[in-house]
Amino acid sequence: MSNSTPPYSYHTFLFPFKWELNQQKDKKFSERTKVEKFSELIRKCPKWKRDVYTINNAEEYNEYMYFYDFVRNILYDQSDYLLGLSNDKNENLFQHFEYELPCCWDTFYEITLYKPDSVNKIYNLKIKSIVLNIYDTGVGVLSFHLLNNTYPKSESILIINQFGRRIFPPFLDKKSGLEGVKKKELAYSIRLKGLHNNDIVEGWHCYDTLFTNEKVNPVKLPYFITDLFSNITICTGVNELCINDVYMYPILDDRMFVISWYGDDKIGDEIKEKDIEYQRFSINNKEGLIENKEHNYFKNKFLYKFIYIDAFSKNCQNDEYQKKIIEDSILTRWSDYNTLYGVSRYSFVCLTKSYSHLCLPYINASFIPEHVVSMYYKMVELVLVQRASILRFSDEVADISSKDESRILDLVKDLYQSYIQFVNKIYFREVTAQEQGIELYDLLQKQMRIERDVKDLDREIQELHQFVALIEQEKQVEKANDLTRIATIFLIPTLIASACALIVSSPFVCGGTPDFYVLCLLGSVILSVLICIWKVDVIIRILSKKKKTL
C-alpha cells in the first residue's frame, strides 16, 4: 500500500462508553467519575500519551477557529497557553490521549470476512491514529481513525463500514451459533496489525462457549479494545471490579458509530442528476404533460446503504418510505456540486466525487475529506458525548431513587451539580457560526434526539428533586410534631409553677390587696404559651398541605 496513492475513503469508528472507577459503587457520582483518577490509571499504560492541543500549523488553526470559544474547552484538551489567552481554566472536563503507533512501519485495522466456501476476504485499512477522550460525566469515546487507499469499489466501502464497526455479536444463531452470525453481520476477525511486537486479534470465539459457565456475562468487549490498555483490567460488570480495574460499558449497543467519507466519480454524478417524469393533465378538454424533476439521490440504493450502514440488502424495502428517510437524513446544500452529507443515529457520512477530482485546480475542494475527519469528527463526538451523558444521568437517577433515605439527599445534590455542569459546559444549542456547521450540528442533534432526551432527563431530575423535598418536609413535620409534644408535656407544670410563684410573692396572699401587675404578668405567661402552641399547629398544617400537593 503506497502512501502516494490517493485516498478512496476515510473511516472513523467511535466507541462511546460509560466508565466508573474501581469499587466505588456507594460513593457520590462525582467521586466515581473523576477524570484525573482515570487519567492516573491510563498513564500506567506505556503506549497511551496525553496529547495537549496546541496550534502549530494552518490545519490546527482552521479547526480551532471553526468553533465558538466557549465550546473549545470540551472539544480540545488545551495547553495552558491557549487557556490563558481566553482567561479559561482547566476544569478537568475531559482529557485527551493518543495511542503511540510505531514510527518505523505502518499499522493496519484488518477486517476478515467469513467465506465458508472460499478463501476469507481481507480488508486492510491504514491506522492514522487511535484516540481516547474521557469526560467527567462518566463517559468516554475511543476512536479508530483509518485510511483506505486500496479498495475503490463502493461495495468495499459498505463492507468496511458494516463489519468494521462491530464490537460483539448482535445475536447468536439458534442452530449454528457464532458461525451463523459471521455469515451475516459479524466479521470473522478484526486484527490490529503491526502494533509493536504483537498483533491484537479478536475472533469472538468466547461466544462459542458462552453458556458453559453458570455466571454468564453476555457483554464482552473485544480484544482490539481491551488489549490497548495493557496494565488495566477492563470489566463490563461492576461487581467484577478489583483495585486497578475500570468499569467500561457500551453506551449504544454492539456497534460503533461510523464517520465515513467516500469519493466516487460515477456515484457523484448520479446524485447530481434528476429524473424527469411527465404527468398528464386535462384542462378545458385540452390534454398536456407536466414535467416533474426529482433528484436521483432519493432513489439511489448506494446512498441509502451508505448512510444506514447496510453492506448487502437495504433494510428498507419501500420506495416512498426510503424517500422520506433520505429527506430527513441528508444535507443537500452542495448536491449540484456532487456532494451530499448524511446523518443517522449510527453514522455521519459524506459522499463526493473522487479525491483526484476534488484536487483539480478548477474544483479546489480537497479540503472536504479533511473537514470530515477534523471539524465534523469533533462535532460528531460532542453530540455522542451528549447522548452518552444523558443516558448515564438517567441511569444514576434510577439508581439513586432506590437508595436509603439517609444518603439520598447528598447523592441528589451531587448529581444535580454534575447535571448543571453538563448543561452549561457540554450541551450546546450551537457550536459554530458557519452556516453549514450549524445545519450539520442541528441534523446530528435531531437524529440522535438530543433535545427531546434532555427535556426528559430534566423532568426525571426535577421529579427526583421533588422526591427529596418531600423527604425533607416529612422530617420537618416530624420535628414540629416533636416540639408540639414537648410543649404540651411541659405546659401544665409551667403554668402551675408560674401561678404558684406569683401567688406566693403577691401581697394578696399575705393578707394585702391584689397586685395588678402580678396578675398581668401571670396572664401574659399563659397567653404566650397558648400562642406558641397555636403557631406550631399552624406550621404543621401548612407543611401537611404542601405534602399533599406533592
Let me know the largest β-sheet.
Answer: 14 strands, mixed
SS field, number of helical segments:
18
Low-confidence runs of at least 5 consecutive residues: none
Q: What shape does the CA trace take?
A: elongated
Category from helices, strands and their pairing: alpha+beta
Question: Distance N terminus to C terminus?
Answer: 68 Å
Mean pLDDT: 84
Beta-sheet strand percentage? 15-25%
Number of strands: 16
CA-atom Rg in angstroms: 33 Å
Report helical residue fraction: 40-55%
Can you describe what's shown?
- The N and C termini lie far apart (68 Å).
- 43% of the residues lie in helices and 20% in strands.
- The strands form 2 sheets. Strands 1, 2, 3, 4, 5, 6, 7, 8, 9, 10, 11, 14, 15 and 16 form a 14-stranded mixed beta sheet that branches. Strands 12-13 form a two-stranded antiparallel ribbon.
- It is built from 18 helices and 16 strands.
- The chain is elongated and about 110 Å long.
- With 550 residues, the chain is of the alpha+beta class.
- Strand 7 and strand 8 form a beta hairpin.
- Helix 13 runs parallel beside helix 14, helix 14 packs antiparallel against helix 15 and helix 14 packs parallel to helix 17.
